[in-house]
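> forwarded from #structure-qc
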């Protein structure tokens, strides 16, 4: 038994070493002086690593999460890492439409520009429930909340972007988007977290492709980043013992948060990030699932999302006015 365990550990170590050789790391030293970046979930895991990197590039970095203590601690970590004092924590609860609107109003009022919006925050293994806004908690945090936030911040992104240097929206999707359903009518139903999580990640890709079409007149681009399987606190919220066992096995082969952050950093910094409507993994463009190209599904999701988050026709006209 001991020999078999040693052999298994040895095989895992070899596989991990092979994997790490193929993990892309973005080595550009390009600075982002005078640019402003907003990162949801920028206080832990992948989001924190993105924030640390972009702050070191001298950008003004706004990190957002619903927990003040976590946010202030993260800000201090970023300050110590980057020596950049232009790091701001703001409260944002994506499970509350009221919080999202208050947050967006504050950003629009106080910030003169927004060059990069990174929709990174997310939950995975949670006991799903209906929020006070009538949405699946998992879907609202992972997608519907980001849908509303992105549209509310579009006026500032539009004012900031130029033809030579468009403003950038980066949606953190996942390989699991390939397992998502095209049955949009069931997206907001409470069910097994696994399927809801898959759907939330497919939603971000469908949203990116649909919003790309609506942004043709503006200097704003939108792309998706796939971080790979990453060991983060997103997996710490389940009480299901079988889910824990699955996670521990999976995390043996996972990337670190820093490794998982590389593709989003690449899209935020590199000139390649000026393309739009594309899907990136391991710091290169790859094909998203064929489901992401279903225009009927994308439009259904758009209409459903507009209704659920309570955007009026007047608001939409103002958001997309030239």
């Amino acid at each position: 038994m001991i020999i078999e365990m040693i052999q298994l550990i040895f095989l895992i170590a070899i596989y991990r070493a092979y994997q790490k050789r193929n993990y892309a790391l973005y080595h550009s030293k390009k600075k982002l002086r005078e640019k402003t970046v907003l990162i949801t979930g920028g206080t832990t895991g992948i989001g924190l690593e993105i924030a640390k990197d972009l702050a070191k590039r001298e950008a003004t970095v706004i990190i957002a999460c619903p927990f003040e203590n976590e946010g202030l601690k993260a800000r201090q970590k970023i300050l110590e890492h980057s020596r950049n004092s232009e790091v701001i924590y703001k409260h944002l609860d994506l499970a509350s439409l009221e919080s999202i609107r208050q947050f967006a109003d504050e950003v629009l009022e106080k910030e003169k520009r927004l060059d990069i919006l990174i929709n990174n925050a997310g939950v995975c293994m949670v006991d799903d429930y209906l929020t006070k806004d009538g949405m699946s908690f998992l879907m609202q945090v992972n997608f519907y909340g980001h849908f509303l936030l992105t549209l509310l911040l579009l006026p500032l992104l539009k004012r900031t972007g130029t033809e030579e240097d468009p403003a950038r929206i980066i949606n953190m999707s996942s390989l699991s988007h390939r397992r998502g359903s095209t049955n949009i009518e069931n997206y907001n139903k409470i069910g097994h977290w696994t399927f809801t999580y898959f759907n939330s990640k497919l939603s971000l890709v469908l949203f990116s492709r649909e919003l790309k079409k609506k942004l043709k007149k503006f200097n704003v681009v939108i792309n998706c980043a796939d971080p790979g399987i990453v060991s983060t606190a997103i997996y710490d919220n389940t009480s299901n013992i079988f889910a824990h066992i699955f996670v521990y096995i999976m995390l043996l082969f996972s990337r670190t948060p820093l490794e998982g952050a590389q593709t989003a950093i690449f899209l935020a910094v590199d000139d390649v990030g000026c393309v739009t409507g594309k899907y990136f993994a391991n710091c290169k463009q790859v094909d998203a699932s064929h489901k992401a190209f279903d225009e009927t599904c994308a439009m259904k999701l758009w209409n459903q999302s507009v209704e659920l988050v309570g955007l009026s026709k007047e608001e939409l006209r103002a958001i997309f006015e030239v």
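QC bot note: Strands lie at 36-40, 60-65, 87-91, 116-119, 167-172, 220-226, 279-281, 284-286. The CA atoms of residues 126 and 238 lie 5 Å apart.
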